[in-house]
């Protein structure tokens, strides 16, 4: 197997997935080797392997290459075609098969990558075989694929899971009896343009009391309208304007592979992912309690609002805090038997969805909660946003540890508690504010997240800390 460019797979294999520049750090030849290594490392010879991709131009070629490599090593690739990332998780969970989706999520058009799952939608990360796949694939890329002696070459067949995915989500949240809602959805030319009509529309299932106003539903991996990254405020502006223009009740924005969802209220203002986490947590606690659970567990990461654990406790649940990152969340979800988990980045995880993240199911919970009462979303969501957040602010700092030490010295005489899970957290003992400084593992950034009971306190603490951090930057 010859290669046209020299590929070093360590450039594209990250801690949780694969992401690279098409033709430079990820090629069809490399993907074929990865497909073979995926089967060998996870012991999938003779088993079905799920293969799908997003709307990026390189995804079909990469899907075919991965299938060739997997079939060569004796697996039976099942080609899912165009899928969102949470469709892969659904398929891996419901069919109990390992699989991959080719996507680079919200990255620009030049990128593509791979998210992998074991049978049952268990994530494949650096701690659970991802780097073993990388190393074996590199060997196959450099030395050529060995002749398979364990089993005959597998067969490749097509499999469509969209209808089953939509029906399963509908079975988890009943939207049929809510009041009519006008919903603007910005798919960002990503996979939400395929999944939204299937789940919320009437293309595959009976219609719901939802009027969907579609924005950028054309599947286009060049992202002609705006980057498919709703975490950046400028990428929400079209949706915010459209919500106001159409007099909509709510706006939803999906990222490129549609595993994250962001919410806009009727005034065009973002509803924080922490508020969404709290809202969904309360609903999932009630549902679990109705099924006989005494104290359902909810997972949240370190830098979600303190409103999340407060809402969980008030609803009779038990909050468990974890580090930032989906592999940590999913691991703790499984360990704790948690019913739901949420992150500040708008990843939402559900026990009933194989502990995996799905933006669509979170959106359905918000629609159900909104549609079961008459209050506008801005008032309804405000119940879950009692604090003022700084948002995440990056400072380019070479000596990150030194910057953190200077901040701690400044607050040494203050009535605060210091925590060291995932960076450094300083929290006022009277509950008036907290902030976290978290170094990036891949960039020269120190990330600041903070929250306070009022705007003046939030801004004062934020300005004080950032001044210290950047004083010797």
UniProtKB/TrEMBL annotation:
Residues 12-128, 164-268, 278-387 form the Alpha-D-phosphohexomutase alpha/beta/alpha domain. Keywords: Isomerase, Magnesium, Metal-binding, Phosphoprotein. It comes from the Bacteria. The keyword Lipid biosynthesis does not apply. GO terms for molecular function: metal ion binding; phosphoglucomutase activity. GO terms for biological process: carbohydrate metabolic process. InterPro entries: A-D-PHexomutase_a/b/a-I, A-D-PHexomutase_a/b/a-I/II/III, A-D-PHexomutase_a/b/a-II, A-D-PHexomutase_a/b/a-III, A-D-PHexomutase_C, A-D-PHexomutase_C_sf, Alpha-D-phosphohexomutase_SF. Its EC number is 5.4.2.2. Residues 392-466 form the Alpha-D-phosphohexomutase C-terminal domain. Its cofactor is Mg(2+). Signal peptide: none annotated. Belongs to the phosphohexose mutase family. This is Phosphoglucomutase. It comes from Paeniglutamicibacter gangotriensis Lz1y. The gene is glmM_2.
